[in-house]
Amino acid sequence: MQNPGFPGPPIAAVVLAAGASSRLGSPKALLRRGGQAAVTRVVSLAAWSGCLPCVVVVRPGSPQVVTAAKDAAVPVEVVESIRPEAGRTGSAKRGIIAAKSPAALIWPVDRPSAKQESVVRLIQAYKKGTKEVYVPVHEGKRGHPIIIAGRALWEVVGLDDNAPLHEVVHKDPARVQEVLVDDPGILVNLDTTEAVVAAGWEAPL
């Protein structure tokens, strides 16, 4: 897999890896498939697909997650979530501010199964388009990662830390572009042990 290098406006990646993973007993960022940690895969695919910088938001005191993020062997910036217990939006805000980019590919680490082709397709839609939100869709269902750009991106920064991101995504359907992909991986959510096993992932050694 290589960076396609297509022109257009810049885009950062914000990888959300600050969750407690209390139901699984170990960080979702460290779940493995094919010998690779979830956070390593996500960072690698984001970078190879054209995102710069790649910002990974982690819980304070997560050295293993930091190491796995840097195992991607691409430029990566790791920042700590200020209030990880508040939820995903607080982490997204932290990453967006650190990235200093007009657009961000927001990628929760518990959704690591998307194909690179899908990520590239999403980024190409953004670089060629005029919308502020880009969402991958497989068989009529929306998945992850998503792209938020322009005014909508700074609306995320203005949310309360515990407010859901979909307040911005669903605010104005006219500014959302659905991007069709042939990829059930965008729908995979590693939120339970059963989902982890079904998707071919496993707990860290």
Structure write-up:
The protein is an alpha/beta fold and 205 residues long. Helix content is 30%, strand content 20%. The strands form two sheets. Strands 1, 4, 5, 6, 7, 8, 9 and 10 form an eight-stranded mixed sheet that branches. Helix 1 runs parallel beside helix 2. The longest helix has 13 residues.
Element layout with pairings:
Layout: E1 12-17, E2 32-33, E3 36-37, H1 38-48, E4 54-58, H2 63-70, E5 77-80, H3 88-99, E6 103-108, H4 116-128, E7 133-138, E8 141-142, E9 146-149, H5 150-157, H6 166-169, E10 176-180, H7 193-198
Parallel strand pairs: 1-4, 1-6, 4-5, 7-10
Antiparallel strand pairs: 2-3, 6-9, 7-8, 7-9
Average predicted confidence as pLDDT: 92
Q: Name the CATH class.
A: Alpha Beta
* Sheet with the most strands, sense and barrel status: 8 strands, mixed
Q: Please report the total strand number as a whole number.
A: 10
- The chain-level structural class is alpha/beta
- Strand content range: 15-25%
Low-confidence spans: pLDDT under 50, at least 5 residues?
none
CATH topology: Spore Coat Polysaccharide Biosynthesis Protein SpsA, Chain A
The tally of helices reads 7
Output the CATH homologous superfamily.
Answer: Spore Coat Polysaccharide Biosynthesis Protein SpsA, Chain A
- Principal-axis shape equals globular
Terminal Cα span? 26 Å
User: What would you report as the Rg, rounded to the nearest angstrom?
Assistant: 15 Å
Which sequence of SSEs, written as H and E, runs from N to C?
Answer: EEEHEHEHEHEEEHHEH
